[in-house]
Amino acid sequence: MMIHTAEEGWVLIGALLVGLLLAMLGGTAMNLAVTEVTASSRHVDEKTAQLLAESGVEQVMAWLTQGALPASHETMLLPVRFTGTLDAPDVTYDAGRPEDDRVLNNASAGGALADFGRVTRVRLYGPGHPDGYCALEVTAEARGGSRRTVAVELGIWRIPPLRAAVQADVPSTDLSVAESGSLPKVQTHWGEIASNSPPGPWQYQTFKDYAQRFGSYYVPDREGRLYRNGMTDPSHALTPSQVFGSQEVGDQRGLVFIDTLDQQPPNETNQVTLVLEAPYMEGTFYINAHVVLQPQGTGQAIQTLTPLPEGQPVSASPVPVSLAEVTIKGVLYTTRTLRVDTEVRVFGAVVAERGLAGAGPMEVWYNNSLGRGRVEGLPVVFPIRGTWREQ
Q1: Is the peptide bond before 266 cis (omega within 30 degrees of 0)?
Q2: Average pLDDT over every residue of 226-235
Q3: Cα(57)–Cα(55) distance, rounded to whole angstroms?
Q4: DSSP state of 179
Q5: Signed CA dihedral, 169, 173, 176, 177: sign only
Q6: Partners of 389 in beta bridges
Q7: DSSP character for 216?
Q8: How far is residue 264's CA from residue 191's CA, in Å, rounded to a whole number?
Q9: If we measure between CA atoms, which residue out of 103, 382, 80, 71 comes closest to residue 255?
Q10: pTM for this model (two decimals)
Q11: DSSP character for 314?
Q12: Rounded to an integer, what distance in angstroms lies between the CA atom of residue 219 and that of residue 249?
């Protein structure tokens, strides 16, 4: 009887030990699960802060591309080059100040990123890189409290200004390049018609390099078909309408560069003729070819602002206007002859290094931003390779 009692006691003790061990294991597993959840949540919070800081970098780059930084009461004009230091930056935005918080986080409009956190500080100062324009540091904080800082140095592409609505000329020593036919009637608004003997204000190699990095680069064949990045596979040939045509206002093509046949600087033998038939084109088009404009359609209506006449007070406001049946919004630049075969309307500027031809009338409304080297759709500033840092 006593033997059975002792055995039952040991069984009870064993069961208690097993239960205690299982409880300890369960507690450990629970702690591990809680730790893992906490670590995962912290990782998400840190990643959110990182993405917010990166979005702040993109926002500042957009401001710089537009040519001015927003301030609490006025627009801050940009220097030729930033010269400050990290401890004494040229420009500082601090979200602790309500006016800066509105600029950084669109607080007054309840920005879409507000649920995730906010950008807390932006500093711009002199770059360390010899080719730099400025150094940019952006700090952001996620809702969970994690902070991240992104620092990068920015370069700038100084685009030569286009100071006239139409720049076109035929050098007296080379009149043979002009195509036969009467000159088109050209009417300009907000800008002038200027002579432009070759070479023009925009250089071939500069824009070619830029298009290969930031825009779209094409090489033509002798039939006028276009090949992206020079990949001359017939199955990938594109028509000019496919490359240049925009479906609607806002369908921005950016910089489109059409190279010569042999991908060498333009001369008398390496350029073809491109016929542009798209009813609406929006972008910056640098074309190393003879260009024939004969849009098959009526274009689009665009909204813009009238430029302020010289001498107007700063307090004066531009007037909104609507331009109907616009064929090209942007810049049409050709190193050869531009032939206009039907009515064409342009908002921006036209440059034809070898002159104009054709009978169709052309009406151009000058975009005065081009006179400051600001070209819609072209990123003026860019991150310098090797300068991106995360903290």
Answers
A1: no
A2: 93
A3: 5
A4: P
A5: negative
A6: 151
A7: E
A8: 33
A9: 382
A10: 0.74
A11: T
A12: 26
CA 277 to chain centroid, in Å, comes to 26
| 342, amino acid identity | T
The per-residue pLDDT of the chain, averaged, comes to 86
Q: Which amino acid is at 130?
A: P
* 3-state percent breakdown (helix, strand, coil) of the chain, nearest 5: 30, 30, 40
Neighbours of 143 (CB within 10 A): 14
The candidate with the shortest Cα–Cα distance to 61, out of 159, 157, 162, 161, is 157
Domain boundaries, given as residue ranges, for the chain: 52-158+380-390, 166-308+317-372
Handedness of CA 40, 45, 51, 54 (dihedral sign): negative
Within 10 angstroms of residue 85's Cβ, the number of other Cβ atoms is 11
Q: Which residues of 198-211 are buried (b: 16+ CB within 10 A; e: fewer)?
A: eebebebeebbebb
The whole-angstrom separation of Cα 390 and Cα 383 is 14
Quickly tell me which residue has 């009978």 as its tokens: 359
Strand 344-352 versus strand 166-168 pairing type: parallel
Residue with tokens 């542009």: 276
Nearest Cα residue to 224 out of 251, 244, 198: 244
In contact, 46 and 142? CB cutoff 8 Å: yes
- Which of 12-21, 54-63, 219-228 shows the lowest mean pLDDT across its residues? 12-21
Name the CA radius of gyration of the chain, rounded.
31
Phi/psi-derived region of residue 42, left when phi > 0, alpha when psi is between -120 and 50, beta in every other case: alpha
**Tokens linked to 145:** 């409290």
Residue 158 banded pLDDT, cuts 50, 70, 90: confident
360 Cβ contact partners less than 8 Å away, ≥ 6 residues apart: 184, 293, 294, 340, 341, 342, 343, 344
Model confidence pLDDT, tens digit, residues 99-131:
999 999 985 444 556 678 999 999 999 999 998
